[in-house]
Amino acid sequence: MGILVYIEISRDVTLAAREEGITQLFLTNPLLFSDKLLEGRIKQYQNANELNKDIVFLDRGVPDVVAYLNGTDIAYGDNYNQACTNTKYDVVFIFPPWEEIHSNDNERYEDFEEAKRLHNLLDKTYRDFGYTPIIVPTGTVEERTNFILKTLNIS
């Protein structure tokens, strides 16, 4: 459709760590993993803003990093919250966990119960930063795409 989409970078961070012999960087060093994600997501946000395009999709945002850290007992610096305050998204869509399509792979190790817990943390964190996330209903890829496009008045 000609709309730019920035990919989820956590897989790249995970794969880079694996090349250095670290199987799961988030489990081994959650703060280092989160620092790398924060840096990458800020860079994506800045790049997207520099393009002057009407619509750009980012698969995950800066508040996601805070949400995942909030799901741990790890203390993190105020730079995380400041980054969330400094990066403002026009619209936030959230895809809730869907058991029928949930699967694990080398980078996604969370089971479905953990996915539900993380979903609740994501929703709460975005709300805490002033967003009203739009929940994308289950359905085919086409139905979900149409929902998003209709919501954005693109269809």
General description of the model:
With 155 residues, this protein is mostly helical. It contains 7 helices and 4 strands, in the order βαααβααβαβα. The protein has a two-stranded parallel sheet. A two-stranded parallel ribbon has the order 3-4. The radius of gyration is 16 Å and the shape is globular.
What oligomeric state is this? single chain
> How many helical stretches?
7
Q: What is the percent of helical residues?
A: 40-55%
Name the poorly predicted regions: none
Which sequence of strands runs across the widest sheet?
1-2
Sheet/helix structural class: mainly alpha
The end-to-end distance, rounded to whole angstroms, is 11 Å
Percentage beta strand? 5-15%
What integer value in Å does the Rg equal?
Answer: 16 Å
Helices and strands, in N-to-C order? EHHHEHHEHEH
C-alpha geometry: globular
Mean pLDDT: 89
Could you give a short account of the major beta sheet? 2 strands, parallel
Number of strands: 4
Key phrases:
155 residues, mainly alpha, two-stranded parallel ribbon, two-stranded parallel sheet, 52% helix, globular
Offer a quick outline of the entry.
By secondary structure, the protein is mainly alpha-helical.
